[in-house]
Please model this.
Amino acid sequence: MPNLIQKRVLTIQDISCVGRCSLTVALPIISAAGIECSVLPTAVLSTHTGGFEGYTYRDLTGDITPIAEHWRSLNLKFDAIYTGYLGSFEQIELVSEIFDEFKAPGGTILIDPVMGDNGKLYTGFTPEFAHGMAVLCAKADVILPNLTETAFMLGEPYRDEYNAADIDALLRRLYALGVKAAAITGVAYEKGKLGVAAFDGKNIKTYFNKQIDGYYHGTGDIYASAFLASYMTNGGELYGAAASAADFTVACIEAKQRFGGEPRRGVPFELCLGMLADPSR
Ligand code: PXL
Model:
């Protein structure tokens, strides 16, 4: 009798048809780690919103409740629910209900509060929405904001530089939103090194890899997906997942440097998926 149980993840975010972000990176990355990945698309866009003109946007908010009703009839539960880009307050509310109903006992809620980068909110987001996202974070086990998202969720001005004491204080304030753990991405204390600072309510640990100049679209979604893949396959180990996701993201960016191409088309993460596979499982 087989007694191995494969982990099941549900990821809730948009599908941008072109540009390698959100669902088009989450599904392959989580799958490559040997995890069953179900999806709940919140919107379909012809491209993502970062660098393309004239993209289409079909809002799928109205499909979320009927999908959930069908899943209820099937008694589905997920070992982890991971949310990324969400497009409205109504979606935040619906996602909050999905957390309550579809998380398996002992399961994990991972929120990547995708809203902005480099001190600016993405097109269509407002400081009020960032506050709504901060409220949703109270239901999370782990949140993975970058510094821009951290600043907007905490209602703080974004700064160009942060030292270790600043980051420690921000992590404690994120933790106070009600999460079990928070990791801030895109942290830099010295030139040439970029990394992540993570706090589980007891210890703060940092991990740095090389800083690669330039802007690489979709790498936040790649980071969160690789984080979840490691977290789920290594017994919920926060710091190890934070570090291995950083290494995976850097490998994807290095592949972009070798292969080139428009920044808005994302990075060739496909070439690095082998790093996530564990043939022993
Ligand atoms: O990568 C984050 C992201 C996800 N989804 C959509 C986006 C972006 C960033 O621009 O536009 C639709």
In short: The CA atoms of residues 179 and 212 lie 30 Å apart. The chain has a mean pLDDT of 97. The chain has one domain: 8-269. Residues 14, 16, 21-22, 45, 48-50, 85, 114, 122, 218, 220-221 surround PXL (CB under 6 Å).
